[in-house]
Each structure stands twice: as C-alpha cells, then as structure tokens.
Recover the amino acids of this structure.
C-alpha cells in the first residue's frame, strides 16, 4: 500500500492539522484506487467511434429512422392489389306468384345455387380504382312445379312433346350455368386527380423518413461534439493534476529547505509557517484537481457506453495532448456550410416541403368530385358448364358501360378553412426558416471570432507561463543567496502554478472552440471523417 508522509511543525494550528490529515487520507485512497483500477488508453477518434456506437441517445434516435422507414413501406402498401375469392351456396324454395314484369304466373320452384369467382382490385398511383372479377353461378337441380299451372300458362311450360305440363309428375328438373368476366374502373378528373389522400400520406411519409435521418444526424453531431468537449476537458484535467503535482513537489522542496534554514538560524519560524501553509494550499488544489478529473472521467464514460458498470472501475487515459494548430476559417465558406449542412436548417427545409404537400392536397379538395366510371366484359349461359365456358371465351356476348359522377358540396366550408390553415402554417414555417438562417449567421460568426480569440489567448498564456517561470527561477536564486524573503518566493510559486494552469486551460478552450465551430457549421462528422449508418 502506498504511504504518504506529512511533516508538521509544532506551531501549526489544530484546524490545519485536521485539514491536512484529511488530505493525507484522501491522497492515500486515490493512490490505492490508482493501483487497483484498470486503465484504458483512448484516442479522440476511438472515443468518437465508441460513443456513436454505444451511446444510448444515439441508439434510441436510430430507431426513429427504422420506424419512419417501416411507416413509409406501410403507406406504399395502399397501391398493392388485393386478391379476393368468393364461394357461396344458396338454397331457394320459392312459392308461386304473379310476376308483374312478365305479366304471367311464376311457378314455384326449388333450387341450389353455387357461386364461385376470383377477383383482383386495387388503386394506381394516378388515383384510378380498378376491379377485375370473374364469376360462375351454377343453378343445380332446379325443380319447377307445374302441377298447379292454369290454361293461361306460357309456351315456356310446354314439355318435350309440345304439350303443356307433361313433365314427370308435373316437376321439371334442370341445371344452368351463368359465367361472367369483366373489369370496372373509376378515374377522378378533378378532386383527387393529381393528388389524393393516399398519395399525400405516401409523400408525407417519405418526407418524414428524410426528416428522421436528418434528426439522427443532428443527434450524432451533438453527441460527437459533446464527446470532443468532454475529451478535451479530460485532457485538461489530467494536465492540471500534473501541474498541481509539480507545484506540490516545488512547495514541499521549498518547505524542507526552509526548515533547514530555520534550524540554522537563517530564517524565522514565520518563514517556516508560510512555507508549510503553501504546501497545504497546493495539497488542497491537488485534491480539487483530482476530484474534477474523476468527474470528467465519469462524464466521458457516460457518453461512451450503454452500461456504466463496464467502465466504472476503468480509468480512461487520453492519448492525445492539447495543441493549438492555427486555423483561419473562411467566413463565406463557414456560412455556406451552415446554410447547407446544419441539420436544423435541413430539417426545416424538409418540413417546408412536407407542408407544401399538405397545402397542395387541401387545394385539390376545393374542386368538386368528377369521376369517370367505365366497365366492360363478357358473359355466357348454358345448361352445360363446358358450353358456357366456350361461349365466354369466344366473346359472343360482350357488355360495357360508361358514365360519370359529379358531386358538388354546397359550401366547401371545411375544405376552404383546411386550405387556409395549411397556408398559414406554411407561412409560419417560412418565418422559422428565416430565423434559423439568421441564428446560423450569428452562431458561426461568433464561433469563428471565439476561435481566433482563443488562439491568441494560447500564445499570450504561453508567454505568461514562461515569464512567470523565469521570475520564479530568479526569485529562488535570490532566496538561495539570502537577498529576498520567503514571501516573494511563495508568491512567485503561486503565480507560476496559476500561469501553467491558465496555459493548459487556454489550450483546452481553443480545441473546444474549434469543435464548437464545426458544430455550428454542421461539419463535425466530416471534419472527424465519420460516416453514419442509419439502418
């Protein structure tokens, strides 16, 4: 087990003793965890790949693209033809009655009727409805009773010999087959002609699928940006811990030298107390830096995995350093990227196109219904099914019909108000698009200026760190020569540590500003060479 030793002068107050003891315990625990936890080296590219594959938000959003794709396929099913087949049996026992249309007596009969027939019906993308059908009606063992017929019966009642009612027992038995094959179509010419509800739903579903893919891309860009920001913060946290460790080493070394000089009578107890206080302050700063580093570790782990337990005891070791490569974004180029690649603007364009489909449909509904209807086919009938089938195939008995249906609502109130509402929503979406474009202008302009400022700060912070370090070195040499006091040395140590932290903070901020610029112009995936798969 790692052991940490803390030397305390007798003049340190009780509160300082307690605080320092707690610091020692925390440092010991940190050392133990470092020895027992596994580590995993991770580059930024690896972090992006892991996050976009395992991040729960990404997995959830990906299902929206799947749902939208299935919804579109479902809507396209409206154009699939339907096959039908009917089969029925009917038994009739009809009494005798006077048939007005025939102006004579209709004799009582009993009959079994079997009806069979297939059919195919559906709808074409033009809005045309079609129905192809074939039917066979077989009247089997029809038994007509002529025993109660009067002398006014028709010639139809004569038997084979030419006499009336000489069927055996007065009962005529017969079979008859009726066959029919034809097609019926209905084509709208005004309302539902160039667009109808089915075509509207299909077009809207297709736009919704495109919107879901853009929304998935938007989330992927956001997650990738968040991962980059968290990664840079983690690198900063690691480097800041190193800075505080160096500061603690420097402060401890100065404290030990001060103790020796106090014993030699060169310095006073007050100098020793000041040196010890500096050690305690740096220890506290180190603990805070380590705490922030742990928090940054967990923040990144949460983005990289769908199961935090798999990462809980693993320390991520970022393999990349914070560097500031000069970048000079072209204002016209980043604005063009924002207007053509930002997912929120692309989504709004698709929403406008989707609303245009709805406006077109509602406008079409302002017209009256005027449909052309036509049907045609052939039929045949015979006591023999084979003879009837031959007769049908020879098209000896064709039929057809042509007509039109006109329907005009009295007011069109529902249709007119639906059209006006869809137009108002379209106008609202146009204004939202203008606002998004204006926001994009502002955001990319701000991000570009922040990036330029951040790069300048890196140079300034580096110069400040070099100056502070040179001042510390000079002050330490003066202290060794006995021409300065501990106060000035400790002050220089504090300033040098702050300058080191400020420099790495500036480096982290520059890299974060660059990632933010890519996010605002919608090029995060391209800049990191990431190809999305939505399926």
């Amino acid at each position: 087990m790692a052991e940490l030793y803390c030397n305390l002068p007798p003049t340190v107050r009780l509160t300082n003793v307690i605080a320092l003891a707690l610091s020692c315990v925390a440092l010991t625990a940190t050392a133990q965890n470092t020895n027992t936890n596994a580590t995993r080296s991770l580059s930024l590219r690896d972090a992006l790949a892991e996050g976009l594959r395992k991040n729960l938000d990404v997995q959830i959003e990906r299902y929206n693209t799947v749902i939208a794709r299935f919804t579109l396929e479902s809507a396209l099913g409206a154009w699939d033809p339907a096959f039908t087949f009917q089969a029925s049996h009917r038994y009739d026992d009809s009494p005798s009655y006077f048939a007005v249309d025939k102006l004579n007596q209709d004799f009582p009969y009993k009959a079994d009727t079997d009806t069979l027939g297939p059919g195919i019906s559906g709808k074409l993308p033009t809005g045309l409805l079609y129905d192809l059908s074939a039917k066979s009606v077989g009247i089997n063992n029809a038994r007509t009773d002529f025993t109660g017929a009067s002398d006014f019966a028709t010639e139809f009642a004569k038997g084979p010999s030419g006499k009336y009612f000489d069927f055996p027992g007065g009962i005529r038995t017969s079979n008859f087959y009726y066959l029919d094959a034809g097609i019926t179509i209905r084509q709208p010419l005004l309302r539902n002609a160039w667009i109808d509800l089915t075509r509207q739903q299909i077009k809207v579903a297709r736009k919704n699928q495109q919107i879901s893919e853009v929304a998935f891309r938007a989330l992927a860009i956001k997650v990738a940006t968040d991962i980059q920001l968290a990664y840079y913060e983690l690198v900063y946290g690691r480097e800041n811990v190193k800075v505080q460790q160096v500061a603690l080493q420097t402060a401890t070394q100065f404290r030990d030298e001060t103790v020796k000089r106090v014993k030699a009578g060169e310095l006073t107890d007050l100098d020793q107390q000041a040196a010890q206080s500096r050690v305690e302050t740096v220890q506290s700063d180190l603990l805070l830096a380590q705490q922030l580093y742990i928090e940054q570790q967990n923040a990144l782990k949460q983005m990289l995995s769908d199961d935090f337990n798999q990462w809980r005891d693993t320390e991520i070791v970022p393999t990349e350093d914070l560097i500031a490569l000069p970048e000079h974004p072209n204002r016209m180029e980043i604005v063009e990227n924002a207007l053509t690649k930002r997912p929120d603007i692309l989504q709004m364009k698709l929403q406008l196109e989707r609303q245009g489909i709805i406006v077109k449909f509602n406008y079409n509904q302002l017209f009256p219904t005027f449909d052309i209807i036509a049907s045609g086919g052939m039929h045949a009938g015979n006591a023999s099914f084979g003879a009837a089938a031959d007769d049908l195939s020879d098209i000896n008995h064709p039929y057809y019909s042509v007509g039109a249906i006109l329907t005009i609502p009295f007011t069109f109130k529902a249709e007119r108000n639906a059209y006006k509402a869809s137009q108002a929503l379209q106008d609202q979406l146009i204004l939202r698009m203008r606002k998004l474009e204006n926001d994009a202008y502002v955001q990319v302009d701000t991000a570009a200026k922040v990036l330029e400022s951040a790069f300048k700060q890196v140079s300034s912070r580096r110069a400040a760190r070099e100056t502070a370090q040179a001042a510390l070195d000079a002050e330490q040499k003066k202290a060794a020569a006995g021409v300065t006091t501990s106060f000035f040395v400790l002050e220089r140590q504090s300033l040098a540590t702050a300058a080191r932290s400020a420099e790495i903070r500036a480096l982290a901020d520059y890299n974060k500003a660059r990632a933010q610029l890519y996010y605002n112009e919608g090029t995060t995936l391209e800049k990191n060479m990431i190809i999305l798969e939505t399926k």
In short: Confidence is low (pLDDT under 50) at residues 1-36. The beta strands are 38-42, 82-94, 97-99, 104-106, 109-123, 129-145, 171-188, 314-318, 369-382, 398-407.
